[in-house]
Structure formats: structure tokens, C-alpha cells
Amino acid sequence: MNEKQFSEKLVDQKPKQANRLIFKQKKVLIVLTLLFAVALIGYAPRIFSHAEDIVTDIGAHSTFHYELTRILAVGTGFCKSDAETIAVANEATDVGSFTGENGYSVQIRHTSRVGNNSPYWHFARRGAEYLRVSNSLVTTPPTSAETCDYFAATNMQCPKDSNGQWIPELDGITNWSLYGANSLTPPNGRVPQFSTDGGATFSTVQGRTLTSLGLYLHSLTDSYSHEACMQVAKLRSHQNTPTECNANNWHIQLEYGNSSSEAGVQYTITAGTAAWRAMNNFRAINFPNISPVWTESQAVSFITAWAQMNNAQDRRNYAVSQYNSFSGCIR
Fold first, then answer.
1. In degrees to the nearest 10, what's the CA dihedral of 108, 113, 119, 122?
2. Domain boundaries of the chain, sorted by first residue
């Protein structure tokens, strides 16, 4: 007896019972459809064509913080295993726990993008010595790399030194990562901790390590990704308006694609270039015997082409293909 016959039999024998059964089936179908829609909306940043994120066999992650960081690390001369350590730590700064394609896994505490530590690690301010974004597509194009100025007339000013100069958060993070200085100033003094044994034991992340470099790169590049919001709204978090602060509009649609029409693409390119320079500085200070594989011109060319790809899968494929073309390194 097929489903139609079974249904007809019920209708013939017990009309009221059949109607109740059909009604219940429809209710279940509606509920399942709504649940699926909610799930789809929840994962929207990871499936939209312009989105930064992608879902692969290693889970949902940022193509910028993982794939791009990894290929740039190899391009600056790091071995692939070191590039994985850097990129995995970069991604884990956002999601707390991440495992890379070579199996290296890390958990990181006290850098969550939700909570008291979020502004420090994900909306850090920069000094004038960093790269400035050149962009005419945003409401107010940046005129300096200095982002403390955006908050000068608010109650969220950067602290000042004895000479009255701003002390951006990135100054402390940079000196910690590159030179091993005791210069972190996170809220409540909660410095990052990490675990490589599945969370069984945690240790403080020390400066001048590859893990600290991954955290630094995350904060550095996020300072560009969130700069337009900081400038326009004097805000160090996301909200629905203006567009520059809307995570769905900015991170999904505007940070990738055609740089002549998408307002956020130049921020992505500048962030990638800043990451390249930061890794080169770290390498020169801590591994002076390593020579970069790419020139900066080659790196910027790659970053630009990568950022202008609309599809996250295309960006991943491009980065992975280049990564796989490198055979090794000299330590």
C-alpha cells in the first residue's frame, strides 16, 4: 500500500483522524522549514558569495585569517609548519579553538570577539607609523593611519604618554609579539593563554613566539577591517547602522570583490599588506637567517588579486594552490 492509498483508506474509514494526521504532518513540515531557515540565516556569513568565511573539512573559518595568512607566512620565508602555527593561532583568536589542515590544533583564551576583551583584540587602535588606507569610496576617506584620532572627542580616548601622545592598543601588542616586551594592557589584565593538548593544560602566550605573532596579526588586520566603523560611528563593536558597522553588509558584501565599486576592498588589501610587513619584521628580528621568498611587490600583487575575488571558495583555492607550490624552507 502506497502513501496515497494509505491516506485514502484513512479518509474513508476515519475522516477526522486522517485530517488530524495530515494537519500534524503539515505542522511538522512547517517547523522543520523554519528551523532550516534559521540555521541558514545563522550561517549566512559563511555561505554568501562575498563572505570572508568558508566551511571546509576543517570547519568554518576565515579565508583571511587562515588561508591568506598561511600563504603570506610562507612567502616571507617561514616553513610550512611554522606558517600553520601562525595561521591557526590567528584564526583561533576569533573562534577560541581551531585545527589546521596539517592537524596542528590550538585553543586560545581571553581573546574572544564577544565580551570585555573584544575591543582590545578585535578593534585595536593604530599609530601613525602604520599603513594608511587609501580609499575614496567610504563616507569619510582616512587621512592618516592614526586611528586614536577618531575617538579624540569621545569618552573612549586612547591613553596618552607623558608627552601627550596617544598610546594605541596595537603599540603594546606589537612590542609584545615582535620584541617580547611586557606591554600588553588587556582589560582586567587577562593576557592570552593557549593549549595544544585539547584544553587539558593552558600556558600564557609568550611574546616573540609564533603563537603571539598569530594573535598580533589578527589584531592588526582587524584594525583595518573595523576602521571604517570606528571612523564614522566612533564605535568599537558592530551594530546595524551605519553600513560600515553592519557585520552582514561590511564583512559579507563590501570587503571583497571589485575594488573600484566595493567600499571595503581597499581595507582588505591594506590589511593584507600590513600583515605581510609585520611577518617580515618578525622574521627579520627573530629569524634573521631566513630570506623572504616573495618581494613585497609580489605579495601585494597576490593580495590584491585574492581580495578582488567575489567567491570565498575561489579565494581559498587560489591561496591553497600557491601554498602547495612552495616546496620547503631554510631554517
1. 80
2. 1-42, 58-325
